[in-house]
Amino acid sequence: MNSPYMGDFRVTQEYKGSNHDGLDLVGIDSKEIHSTVNGIVHFAGWENSANKKQGFGQFVCIRSNDGDYYYYGHLSEIKVKQGDTVKITDIIGIEGNTGFSTGSHCHYCIRPQFAAGNSRNVSLISGIPNEIGVYNDGYKPTSKPSKESIVISLGGKNYRITEV
Ligand SMILES: [Zn+2]
Q1: For residue 142, pLDDT beyond 70
Q2: Which are the contacts of 137, defined by CB distance < 8 A and separation ≥ 6?
């Protein structure tokens, strides 16, 4: 499974083709949105900066190296800019409630062009079940070393000291 999250997340609305052209996802462990493809940032910004409740609100669209366009909608923050090269797992933004949205979530969809009207089946491509529920990305980062920490006791209290 390749989701925009690392760890647990919830599917809150299924892919329904032209009736809902992506999956709505809500992060449980983290609100960080990660790229699900290797590619180039095609767009990063507001769908309509004059009306921040319209459409995808603040969103990122990545043109993947296979040619499809991967959209991450309704973000509260954007962490990339147009033209950036991104790899799978790179952080591109933070989940949010911008655009046409009634609660914090990420609209995740895949289109063959940078335009509405056509979509790929994001569930089949990503492996995320097309069913409301809680899932785990299953991705295990290998390059992130875990921090060492020790606990010491002083005067009856425990203190954890963590490497910075
Ligand atoms: Zn949606």
Answers
A1: no
A2: 1, 2, 3, 5, 6, 7, 8, 9
- The 10s digit of each residue's pLDDT in 10-67 is 999 999 999 999 999 999 999 999 999 999 999 999 999 999 999 999 999 999 999 9
Handedness of CA 34, 16, 119, 102 (dihedral sign): negative
Question: What is the reported pLDDT for 79?
Answer: 98
110, amino acid identity: I
- Give the distance (Å) from ligand 1 centre to CA of residue 66: 23
103 CA distance to ligand 1 centroid (A)? 11
Expressed in angstroms and rounded, the spacing between residue 72 Cα and the centre of ligand 1 is 10
Q: How many A from CA of 115 to the centre of ligand 1?
A: 16
Taking the C-alpha atoms of residue 38 and residue 27, their distance in angstroms, rounded to an integer, is: 21
CA dist., res. 113 & res. 101, Å (int): 23
